[in-house]
Specification:
- This protein is of the alpha/beta class.
- About 50% of the residues lie in helices and about 10% in strands.
- The chain has a six-stranded parallel β-sheet with strand order 3-2-1-4-5-6, sandwiched between helices.
- It is elongated and about 60 Å long.
């Protein structure tokens, strides 16, 4: 069988816009710190935690593949800057991370996202490939996906081949039988094509295609357009 059997989706900015989700999660985390640890709140502002995250990301390669560990460790550093001992800082960071992740997984889908996923799941194996730390079970769509591979679970982020190879192995298909849908021109579209997948650029935020990349023919501005493109791809 040579047609498409597997469709993988990026998550953030592909199935839902993520920037406001992260801002709300950071605010919820900050409000929790202000209530539970008021003496730390002045030191652990959203801006300060972001600065710590940027420093950790620049200094340690491993954080590029694990945003959950990055945020937890940034908050632990923040608690330590506020005068907490190692044990208290670790406990506080774990609790703050739990608050953040709860809010981080309250997403608002792009129009048509759920309907498209439900329709495609009837005919194709669906998988999720994400560099982020969204939790499909918490979001409530895990039953639509056969698997979810992430930078954290695989150990390498897109555009590296690891996640794409893991998807093929999990689904038991060849690269030419797989289609990846994602918002990032390099990490999703170009990477998928480089690793043998078909690809669709989900440009739901109306961005410009980077001039340094070869133009890509399959692009959508609404997820319903996937079903219109599939006959052109799935031969």
């Amino acid at each position: 069988m040579t047609g498409i059997r597997l469709i993988t989706f990026d998550l953030d900015n592909t199935l839902w816009p993520v920037d406001e989700v992260i801002r709300r999660a950071e605010r919820a985390c900050g409000e929790w710190i202000a209530e539970a640890h008021p003496e730390a709140a002045a030191v652990m502002s959203i801006e300060r935690i972001r600065a710590i995250r940027d420093t950790l990301l620049a200094e340690h390669e491993r954080y590029h593949h694990n945003f959950t560990a990055l945020r937890r460790d940034a908050m632990r550093h923040g608690f330590r800057e506020a005068g907490y001992g190692d044990g208290e800082a670790t406990d506080g960071a774990e609790q703050a991370l739990s608050v953040f992740l709860e809010a981080r997984n309250r997403v608002v889908f792009f129009p048509g996202a759920l309907e498209v996923l439900e329709a495609l799941a009837d005919s194709y194996t669906l998988g999720a490939l994400s560099n982020g730390n969204a939790d499909l079970a918490r979001i409530g769509i895990d039953e639509l996906f056969a698997f979810h591979h992430s930078a954290e679970s695989v150990g390498r982020r897109k555009p590296e081949p690891d996640m794409f190879h893991a998807a093929l192995e999990t689904a038991g298909v060849r690269p030419e039988q797989a289609l990846h849908v994602g918002d990032h021109p390099l990490e999703d579209v170009e990477a998928a094509r480089r690793h043998g997948f078909h690809a669709i650029w989900a440009n739901l935020l109306n961005l410009e295609w980077p001039e340094e990349l070869v133009e890509h023919p399959h692009r959508i501005h609404n997820l319903h357009e996937i079903t219109e493109l599939l006959p052109l791809i799935d031969d």
